[in-house]
Design brief:
It is a multi-pass membrane protein. With 805 residues, the protein is α+β, with helices and mostly antiparallel strands. It is built from 22 helices and 22 strands. The strands form four sheets. Strands 15, 16, 17, 18, 19, 20 and 21 form a seven-stranded mixed β-sheet that branches. The protein has a six-stranded mixed β-barrel with strand order 4-5-10-7-9-8. The longest helix has 41 residues.
Length: 805
Amino acid sequence: MKAGVLLRELWQSWRASLRRPGFVLLTGLALALGAALCAPLLDVFISSTASQARLAAPQPDRLAYIGPSHAPGHYTSISLKQYEQLRSLPGIASIGASTFFSQVNVSVGRIPLLVYAQRVDRGYLATLAMPMALGRYFTTAEDDPHGPRVVIISHGFWLQHFGGSHEVIGKNLSINGQVTRIVGVLPKSFPELSFARIQLLLPLRAAPGLTRDTDLTAIARLDAHTSFRQLGAEAALRMRLFFTAQGKHHFEKHPFVAEPLQHSMRPSAGGVGMLLGLMTTALLLLTGSNVVNLMLLRAQQHRHQLAIRAAMGASAWRLLLTALSDGLLIVLIGCSAGLLASDLLLHALAEHVASIGFMGASHVALTGSMVVFAILIALLITSIGAITGARRARALGASVASTQGLHGGQDARASRLSRVLVVVQAVLATSLVGISMLLAQAAYRSAHANTGYDTRHVYSFHVLPPRQLYPDRQSLAMLAARITATLRSIPGVDTDAASDLALHDDTDDYAFKLPDGHAATVATRAISRDYLQSVRLGLLRGRPFDHADFHDGAAVALVNAAFAKRYLHDAALGQLLGTTPKKGAPESLRIVGVTANAHAPGQAANPVVFVPLPMDPRSAPVYSNGLHFLLRMHPGATPSLASVRAKVQQTAPALAVAKLLPPSAQVSGMLAFLGLLSDVIATAGLLALLLAGMGLYAVMRVSVNARTREFGVRAALGASPRALFALILRAGLRPLAIGLVVGSVIAVLLGMAAHAFLLGLRGFDPSAMLLTWLVLLATGFLATLGPALRAARTSPTVSLNDSAG
């Protein structure tokens, strides 16, 4: 076919479509609604389940993770002694180790910041072998326990705080109150091997022969003649001999392996990822069936013209070209509108996604891959629709001489296919709306559950005191007392308190000896004097901590009702809880009071032991948690971050204030994740409703147009407008009812599958399913209402018109 013919067909088709743009706009809207969510979700799902070649180091296929693994992709840290055994393995060109990330206080300007840092040994960067943006790797002297204090900063930290200046090398940072010299800047493509965005690298400074266990992760670069399997076998043998020499045999539970480092960079999608994948697939099928149905109905509306062209010898390619011309215009309109909607949606969700690390993502934005996904999806869907419509037009050409082929009601086969597609849309829409209702109810129940705390007018923040400045719990308690004293001078503060854990964090366990001789490992929280009052946690029996408990060193404790019931048969007062005898720790704690239960939203109340902040039985401060402060404000008063920072720096100038969170933000990470997931799937459910409604409306509209003469005959024979209205309403709601039944079963099965890994989600919720049915039926009624009213208004005189229908 000549280019001129192609351009002429394209121009004529576009001109005819734009003169009556209803079909193009409606189909483009259907495509836009699908692309608005499908492209971003498909991109996130693929990136979270497929192995990504994101490791930009030289020869990344030679880099390996070495260590114990209890399942593929699930690794366990090693001790310094174990790392020393691995360093001499044959087949290794170089090896390095890093610790788990932590936060440090950094003073760049006037205000200290809390940033993520990671400690690495001198071999870590050499093993990755990535060229530095500026400066150099750590030296052997700098990795010595008594070496000079140096730091390597990330590329982003360099740009943000130093403007990309090349004179940054040699400048000093204050890290945890200690002057530290910058010796290097990481490249922009430096791989993120942890879940946090690392901004500083510090020397490991591990002394040879160090006896204490250190949480290390080892990476190695293999030489050219060694495979991962060989290195893993060597590591397993070496560690078996090492553990046997020490009389330990637990190594058999977690064998040492050597696996490609890129595998450890693959985010785990898990059950949530599979749910999103199924949802994206359902939305794609719904969009596709809608567009295909609309293009098929378009072919039915123009069946007279298409059939004549087919009968006069127009080739299938010529008919297909006309349909493809419409499809190309739909792609242009639908993709443009859909990608614009995607960009707005991602901007709306960006901060929330980054704050909770949704599906392993630290940020979201419209990317080139999303644009390519959207265009490919749109081209595929419209091509299928064009081919289906052209095939039906070609079939009608064979019956061009018959009255039915030209003027009769509907193309029977096309009508059946359209109704099947409506049923498919109803099934998919019911599934999506049903699971979104289940998630919405789970999020609502969790957010509005009675947690036992009263956090109205309560604001929280935390600081991270460095070990060098605050070496024991006594110094931490004194710091907490000084900070709480200064915070009371902020206007509007009612009470304030401190704890070593965040409000809803009850995961820091300690093993106590019970009066009956058994042991119980429970959550232990060290609190300041006004903690219970600040969170309005009631005291059921006994007394709260008093002034003497904090200043005279009395070995006392409070327990919650769950602890008293489970371990002490509700007879807790006066009982003694034994502790592990260690230097500076009491041998036992006497229970002086029982508090009410409190728990994180959506979770059950677990046993908790409260101790005065300086008398924590645990042997060492938990520096990774820091100190968490609560401010209960008078109604109407709001503290500012600037005022809180000023008060903290009066006491401890080197400490950074991480965040000042309002009451609405004091929820668990799982609840925040559930809320975002609920919002995403609710958006998909809303799009599904719109798409299903559009599809049903289009089918019924074309059906009524094709059956106009039939309705005229019915009216002439005595059918009332009400009867005609009910006829179309039943015809429209019948496929919807079939889809509701099948879709409800699928939604329940999805809910039952998701029940195991989503907080507060019930596998089957009658109220959620009833609401789903009401919403879908209302959508179907509204979609059928217009065509039904038009049928009811059909005049009997239409039956006298030969061209009707």
